[in-house]
What does this fold into?
Amino acid sequence: MSRNKRAVLTAGLFVLIVLLLFVATVLIVRWPNSRLAATEQYAVYSAYLESEITENFHDYGTGRGFVLLIQDKTTLARVAAPRFRRLRTDAPALQDATLINFVAENLVSQVLAKQFRLPVNYELLPEEQLVKPGSSAEYVTVSRVGFNKDLSQALFYTEHICGLCGGGGYVLMERRFGQWRVKAFLSTWVS
It folds into this structure.
């Protein structure tokens, strides 16, 4: 092997090692514990949905027979460059680690489990049942949750679909004294 090829291979290997060390450092330093995050995401969803049901009950229905419908799989929330900048501008409290984790978590969808703690009955239904022709089902979708390293900040995307109306947006939440609270709702659409 010639001296130039060996130098190029050595330099390439060095760059690859540095890149791997950088990625590993970011993951270790900034990534939340995945087992704790998997459990905590339901606390985040539950706190948000409970506040929505309590504060906006007219949008979600009333009465003893009311059942909240939730799509059984997370939606894939993409953050395009303009929206990325808007999130940073409109929610200055949003930490970089939370946003990076949110983007990474939303590369794949996840089947939801019946682990929500809500003041109303709820059902998890597949998208096909919620959007079938002639259906005017009122339901909620959620993306996967991105957390900061210490699981004190969370970001996810949600939509509330109600037949001919609805809305969607990013929800930034913070945990204070063990309770999740909405810090900001950044609307992306309303109908």
About this structure: The chain is about 40% helix and 25% strand. Residues 73 and 183 are 25 Å apart (CA to CA). Strands lie at 67-71, 121-125, 138-142, 146-147, 153-162, 165-176, 179-190.
